[in-house]
Amino acid sequence: MFDCQPWTLVIAASGTAVGMFFVWLLHRERKRHAAAVAEVRRLAFHDALTDVPNRLLFMDRASIAFAHARRSGTNVAVLFLDLDRFKTVNDTFGHNVGDEVLRGIATRLRDHLREGDTVARIGGDEFALLMPGIHNADNLVKIASKLNEVVRLPLRVGNHEIFVSASVGMSVYPEDGRDAESLLRNSDSAMYVAKERGGDSFQIYSPSMERDARKAQELETRLRVAVARQEFVLHYQPRIDMETRRLVSFEALVRWNDPDRGVVMPADFIHAAEVSGLIVPIGHWVLRTACRQAASWHSDGCRDLFVSVNLSPRQFHRQDLVPAIREALEAAGLDPQYLELEIDESCVMMNAEGSMPILEDLKAIGVRVLISHFGSGYSSLKYLRRFPIDGLKLERSFISGDVDDRSLARAALGMAKALHIKVIGEGVETQEAADFLRAQSCDDMQGYLVSAPVPPEECHRFLTLLRPGDGDGKTAKGPSL
Ligand code: C2E
Ligand code: MG
Asked: Confidence class of residue 471 from pLDDT cuts 50, 70 and 90?
């Protein structure tokens, strides 16, 4: 028989307790380890800022969804969503607010998805969405416009109410690609098309986009060479005072002398220049050349002649806009008051509050500011009154159009007159249009009726013809206007 002394029982019992303790310890460590492994896995597959899946998990889920779709003969939509002008949010409100905006958008997108869909953050302000079981294009359109709507809702971060929008591109498995990489790439190309349209919209991928993208790439390469070789020239279109018929200004309009294709008009390259950023060196060249030309006219005796230069949205929003203008004026020795800058209504009104300090900076240099294509749809009376501007160029279609357009022109002119802002009629082609504008007390006009844009060597005929009192001291014998 065993010798069961009490002390042996104590040892046995404490041995069991220690054993149990070790088992518990082991169990706890295992749990901790499992939790740590799960956390490591989560970190590896999720975005640290927004906690939605990252690119790695997105790709993994995409290949599972495609395999399933292959077996069941269904479709999977891959969406690429990029926030518009997100840099402005960061620059204006700081990175902490920017981070909150990204978190807010990620949460909204996640809340908006169906079970089985995935939203992932795959770059700074880029999200990818995976949506199995898409039936047709109508489905896609509804989803994308809903996404645009969801992103557009104001976001409250601290004391700020922030408005963002998104550009969305979409492609579908298996029609537009057979693997996640190519579908994401195609959705990205489609997203760019939506972005180029101004953002806050969506685009479904089509194979012709690749052709268009290739063409755009070729154009950009040729433009880059053109900038290096300085293949641009300026033509000038006269603008005259409706009352006195005096020449008031020349608008500088750029042309590209392509050695292969001849003269290329702005409609065929300004957009590409804007998208690629090449508008910046082109714009600097235009400014310098136009200022030099105006200074030369001044030194020929046309002392009160203005020169107008068009500014693109990208130029308008650049930090170095004011130094670039100053530099062009100084290099030419032109008094700033003779330089007019034409900025599109859509460009200033898109972010009216943000435009205000830029316009004020321009006024501080002493140059004149004209809002062009006035009436094309964006103007707000409130801002028109507050903007420090010197004139409005009426949208051309108002003048060339039908009775309704004329009523709009009349209303726009009345409004500008009430605010004591000078109005210029653009695109005046007929005597009848000129008479209409004169009857509405429009100040200046410009258009084919006076002259199409001409190269600088042809400008002298306007300098002499349209300046009453110049030369022989008699009234000008210009066209009967
Ligand atoms: P815009 O500033 O509205 O210039 C007026 C355009 O209308 C010019 O076309 C001009 O030739 C044309 N035009 C003038 N009178 C008439 C008319 O009576 N009837 C018709 N149908 N058209 C008339 P262009 O030179 O082809 O320039 C087109 C646009 O390209 C300009 O529109 C402007 O937005 C842009 N652009 C031209 N040069 C520059 C530049 O140096 N910089 C920038 N950023 N944009 C420029
Ligand atoms: Mg213009």
From this structure: very low
Question: For ligand 1, what atom is nearest to the CA of residue 309?
Answer: 41
Mean pLDDT of all residues in 426-450:
94
CA angle 478, 480, 481 (to 5 degrees): 105
* DSSP designation for 165: -
Query: Are 245 and 195 within one domain?
Result: no
The pLDDT score that the predictor gives to residue 231 is 98
Give Rg (Cα) of the chain: 32
First-residue to last-residue Cα distance in the chain: 134
**C-alpha 85 to ligand 1 mean position (Å):** 27
Task: Give 344's strand partners.
Answer: 372
Cβ–Cβ < 8 Å for 61, 118: yes
Which pLDDT belongs to residue 415?
A: 86
pLDDT in tens, 383-392: 888 899 999 9
Distance between CA 442 and CA 410 in Å, rounded? 10
Q: At 192, which CATH number?
A: 3.30.70.270
Instruction: Examine the domain organization and report whether 377 and 228 are in the same domain.
Output: yes
Which ligand is the nearest neighbour of the Cα of 267? 1
- My answer on whether 120 and 229 are in the same domain is no
The partner residues of 339 in beta bridges, in order of sequence, read: 307
- Tell me which residue has its CA closest to atom 42 in ligand 1: 310
- One domain for residues 33 and 176: no
Tell me if the bond preceding 132 is cis, omega within 30° of 0.
Answer: no
Assess if residue 247 is contained within a domain. yes
Q: List all residues 6 or more positions away from 438 whose beta carbon is below 8 Å from its beta carbon.
A: 242, 243
| Same domain as 169, residue 62 | yes
Residue 274 structural domain: 216-477
Query: Tokens in use for 477?
Result: 């014998």
On whether residue 106 sits in a domain, the answer given is yes
CB crowding 155-165: b at 16 or more within 10 Å, else e: bebeeeebebb
Would the pTM of this model clear 0.85, i.e. be above it? no
Query: Residue of the nearest CA to atom 38 in ligand 1?
Result: 253
Protein residue whose Cα sits closest to atom 13 of ligand 1: 427
In a domain, 452, yes or no: yes
Ligand 1: residues with CB < 6 A are 237, 253-254, 265-267, 270, 279, 283, 286, 310-312, 342, 372, 427-429, 447-448, 453
Longest dimension (CA), the chain: 144
361 lies in the same domain as 235: yes
299 and 157 in a single domain? The answer is no
Residue of 299, 288, 297 lying closest to 249 (CA atoms): 297
